[in-house]
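As practice, study what follows.
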Amino acid sequence: MGEFLDHIKEGLGKTPKRLSSRYFYDKRGDALFQQIMQLGEYYLPARERAIIGEQGEQIAKKIAGEHNGLQVVELGAGDGSKTKLLLQKFASHFDSLVYTALDISEHILKVNAQNVEQFVPGIRVEGHPGNYFETYPRLPYRPQGRLVLFLGSNIGNFLIDEAVEFFGFLKEGLRTEDYLLVSFDLVKHPRKIIKAYDDPQGITRAFNLNLLERMNREVGANFDVAHFDHFPYYDPLSGVTSSHIVSLREQEVSFKDGFRVQFDAYEAIHTEVSKKYFIKEIDSLAALSGMHIAERFCDPANEYALVLFKPKASSN
């Protein structure tokens, strides 16, 4: 827990205060996020599943044209509920299929393995808990081709410059014959977007405030969660949704090791970014990161996209 506490001290010592969304996902956070995934307002999973269901065969055939076997590596794999649908589409197109799931939560990787193995008979499943910035570079490269998955529109957690850098990181684990499949939540009516992050049932609020409760449970903080609230904001100019935890009064929070942090009334902790993309921004992202777009798979309303990238050959 030293890493978590170090992050808290650094983030809450900043102006404005910031904490990373990766710490949302303890056991309770995992369970709350699974509830969010079922919400009608949270349209993203349904859009992604629809594209996989209707166009997953096309994705498989595109990749199978170059590879008889495939290692599918997924960053931020979660419980595998959407990925198993894609892997099922892939199963008949490859002689061998290995699924390598990377996630910070060891608990959710166990759920993932059960889901995938039951749904896709004969697949080999490997789980690697930890920060994928550490686990991905350590993966041994298998002789069959590699497809890296970054689904759930998690690319939205990065702003454009950060996304270019992240693509460079992913590219280090790819050969020119390999593929990268990334899902993008596209720009749409702002009211539809904001409802996805502020559901009337209050589940998203509970998910965000669980970060405070996790600090109470794990590092001995004394946050009074009743005196904080969840506030999301969407900027249609930049396409960026931001989530915040807002202090409802002036207060001090202390930790068992003696660390203390002061909050002004209505001071916020920034916890998450979710970038919504214009198509032209995806094209720019590919160009800036040395990738080319092999194919784009969109829903009928052009509100969500799965984009298949390939690394460009080095000019050196």
